[in-house]
Amino acid sequence: MSASANTRRSPFLAVYSALVFAFIYLPIVVLVVYSFNRDGVGGFPPQHFTFDWYSRLFADSSIWDSVLNSLIVAAGAVGLSLTFGLLAALALDRTDFPGKGIFRRLVLLPLILPGIITGLSLLMFVVFVRLQLSLVTVFLGHGTALISVATIELFAGLQKMDRRQEEASLDLGATPWQTFWRVTLPNLKLSLIAAGLLIFTLSMDEIAVTFFLIGRDNTLPLEIWGRLRRGITPEINAISTLILLVSILLIVIWYRLRMRSEAQ
Amino acid sequence: MYSKTYKLFVSLPPILWVALFLLVPYALMFAHSLWSVQNGNIVHHWNLQNYSELLKNPIYLEVLFRTMRIAAGVTLLSLFLGYPLAYYLSFHAGPRKELLYQLVIVPLWVSYLVRGYAWKTILGSDGVLNGFLQYLHITREPVGFLLYSPFAVVLMLTHIYTPFVFLPIYASLEHIPRALVEASHDLGAGQRTTFFRVILPLSMPGLLAGATFAFVLSLGDFLAPLLVGGPSGTMIANIVQSLFGAAYDWPLGAAISVCILCFTIGLLFLAEILEKRWSFE
Amino acid sequence: MTSASTSPASSLLAVNSVSKRFGEKEVLKTLSLDILSGEFLTLLGESGSGKTTLLRLVAGFEQPTSGEIWMSGARLDTLPPYRRRVNTVFQHYALFPHLNVRENVAYGLRANGAPKSEIASRVADTLMMVRMEEFADAKPMRLSGGQQQRVALARALINRPELLLLDEPLSALDANLRKEMQRELKSLQREVGITFLFVTHDQEEAMALSDRIALLRDGALEQVATPREIYAHPATAYCAQFIGQTNLLRGSISSGIADMGSLTFSCTGPSGPAVFSLRPESILLAANAPQISGPVRFRGAIRRQIYTGASELLEVQSNLGLLLRVRVPACGPLSGEHEFVFSASDAICVKESL
Lengths: 264, 281, 354
Prior knowledge:
The structure holds three protein chains of three kinds.
Chain A: H1 11-34, H2 52-59, H3 61-94, H4 100-112, H5 115-128, H6 135-160, H7 163-171, H8 176-187, H9 189-205, H10 208-213, H11 220-230, H12 234-263
Helix pairs in contact in A: 1-12, 2-12, 3-6, 3-9, 3-11, 4-6, 5-6, 6-9, 7-8, 9-12
Chain B: H1 4-33, E1 36-38, E2 41-43, H2 49-56, H3 58-92, H4 97-105, H5 112-123, H6 128-135, H7 150-175, H8 178-186, H9 191-202, H10 204-219, H11 223-229, H12 236-243, H13 250-278
Chain C: E1 11-22, E2 25-36, E3 40-44, H1 51-59, E4 66-71, E5 74-75, E6 86-89, H2 101-111, H3 116-129, H4 145-157, E7 163-167, H5 175-192, E8 195-200, H6 203-209, E9 212-217, E10 220-225, H7 227-232, H8 237-242, E11 247-254, E12 257-259, E13 264-266, E14 272-278, E15 284-285, E16 295-307, E17 311-318, E18 323-329, E19 337-343, E20 348-350
C-alpha cells in the first residue's frame, strides 16, 4: 500500500473537528433532551420522560400572543428590508454618486454594530419624534437593522446575474420597468427567498435592538427573556425545542429550493 | 444603460432611509452625550462632563478593560475552534464537505437567547454539567465558578460566534485554487510548510472578517452577562443598558455608546485597510 | 548540448502496467511507457484520453490503481510529490498570487532549506534564462499570460528536476504567442538538457516540439514513435487521422492485390480485410505529375476547393464513387473532371484499431 501522496488525512484534525462539532451541538442537545425531563432542568442523568412541559406550553396564552406579535413584526421586517435592500443593492450595483462609499458603509454598518447601539440610537430618535414605543417601533428597529442583510444577499445576486439578459430585453423593445419585472426580479428569485428566510429568522430571534424599542406587547424573545429573569422552567426548553424544529424546517426548505434552482 | 430616473428611483429611497434612521439617530445620540441630567430630567446644556467622567472614574475603565479581555478571549477561542474546522472541511472532508457545512450552519438558526439559556442550564450549580460530574463522582460538590463569571460569558459567546467565524474563513479557504496547493507540494514543500506559506496567507481576508465580527459584537454584548455573567461578569454594554434603565442617565449612556460607535467604525476602517493589503485578487 | 541521437539513451522513467480508476470509470488501462533521459516526449490525445491523468500520476497528485512507476532505478509512485525529483508547469501556471516573481521562483529552494545567498544567485540566473529579470519584484497578477508562463517555467526549472512535466502550458496563449513560446521551450530544453514530459491535444504542437510522441486514446497507448515515424507509418486508423490529415481506404487484400472497391493496387500484406491510409499530399494531378513507381490512377470530379495559401485542398469524387481529399500546390481555381495519380507505396496499411 503506497503512502498517500497528496493530503495525508490527519486523524488529529478529524478528531479536533469532531470535538468542535460536539461543542457547537452540546447545548442544543441538552436543551432538547431536558425539555422532556420531568424533574426539570438540571441534574444528571435526566429521568422520567414526559410531554408535560409541552402541554403546559400549549396552554400558555401569553407565549402564543408573543409568537403572534413576533410573526407580525417579522413579516413586516421582511417586506421592509427586502424592498429597501433591493433598492440599495440596485443603487450600489448600477449607480455612482458622490458619497456612495459612505452610503455603502452606512448601509452595512448595522450588521456589525452591536445591537445595543442601533437600539439606543433609534430609541432616542423615537423619543425625539414623540412616537410611542410599540410593535411599530420594534418593526422600525428590525427593518433598520436587517436592511443590510437584504442588501448583501441581493447585491451578490445582482453581481452573479448576466447583465446581457437585461440588454437583450431592452433591445427587444421592453421598457426598463418591464425589464425589471420580467427579467431582473425572476433572476433574483433565489436571492430574495434566501434573504427573506434569513431576515425572518433574525427578526424572530432579535433581542438587543428590540429590548429598547418594545412597548406593551412582547415579542417572543422578550417574553422568554422576561420569564428567564424570574426563573428557569423547562417550558422554556420546550418552546426552544419547537423554535429549533421550525428553524430546521426552514433550512430544509431553503436547501431544497436552492438545489432545485441549481439543477435548472 | 440605466436612465437618470432609474438611478434616482433606486438610490433615493435607501439614501433617505439611511439618513433618517441611521444618521439622525447617531447624531441625536451624539447630541445626548453632550447634555446632562438634573433632577431626573435631561437638560440640553452643552458640555463635555460625560466624557471627562468616563476618563476620570476608574470603574468605567475597569469594566472597559474587562470587556476588551472578554472580547479578545472570545475572538481567539472562536478562531482556534473555527479555523481548524474550516480547514478540515475545505481540504480534508472530501465529498462529505457540503453536508458538514450545513451542519455547522444549523446552530446559527437557533435563537441566541435559546443557546444562552442552554448554557445557563448546563453550567449552574444545579446544572447538567455539575450533575454529570457528581454522577461520575469526579466532584462531590457543585463547582461554583462555572456560572456567573467572566468564564461563563466567554464560553457562551464563543459558542455563539464560532460558526460566525467559521463562515468567512471557510469561504476564503474554498476560494484558494487547489492547483496552488499542488504547486507547493510539487516544489518540495510538505503539508506544514504549504499551510503556513500558502494557505494561511491566502485565507487572511476571511480570518480578518470573522475576527472583526466576533470581537466587535462581543464587545457590545449585554445579554450574555445578564444571563450567565453575574456581577463579576458585567460588561460595558450592561452599564449603558442600566444608564438607560434604572440608573437613568441618558447623556452618560449616550457618551459610552458614542465611544463604542466610534471604536467600531475605527476598527472597521482598520480592517478595510488590512483587507486591501492582504487580498490578492 | 546536442540531441542524444548518436548514443543509445537510457530510460529515465518507467511506467509499468499502470492503470487508474476513478470510481466506476477506468481512465488509464494498464499502460506501459518508457521515457528516455534527455528527450522531449509529448503525451498527445483528445480530452478524456488520460494524458493529464498520466501526468498527474508521475507528478504524484494521484496514485495508480495498479502498476508501478520507477525513476532512475528507484520506485517513484510511493513517494509524495514533495519528495519526487519531478517538477510541474501547470496549465494555468498556479503562480502564488501573494508572492512576487522572485519569491515564486525561489519557493522550491526555500522549501528545501537552501542558503539565502545561493537562492539569490540562482534566482537571478534562472530569471535571466527565461528573460524575466526585469519583473522580479512584480506580482503575478500584473503579468501577461506569456510572462506568467515563463515565471512558472523558471519556478520549476530552478530546482533542477530530473524530469519536467508540462500540462498544456501553451493552451491559454493566442496563436502567435504560442508559436513563439514553442520555439523558446524547445531551445530551452536543448540548452538545459532536462527530460521534458509534455501534454497537449494539439497535434501540430506535438509534431513541432517532440523527440517522440505518445498518442493516447481512451486510456491506452495507440502509438509511441518519433513525429516522422508516426506521420509516415501510423499504426492505426486513429493515428493516421489524428495526426495530419488522411484518406482511409477500406477493402481487402488477396494474394498481394489490395482491392478498395474502385481502386486496386499491389501491396505486401496478409490476405483479409485491410485499411489503408493515404495522405492527401501523396495524390497528385496526373497532368503535373512526374514519373512515379507503382502508379495508381483514377478520374474524379472536384467537388470543393479550399485555398490555404501555399496549397489547395480538394475534395474529389472519383468516378467510381470514392470521396478523397487531395492536397496540391496552389494552382488557381480548378473545375470539372481531372485525372489523379498516386504511388501504391504511399498507401500505408494500418490496423483498424489496437
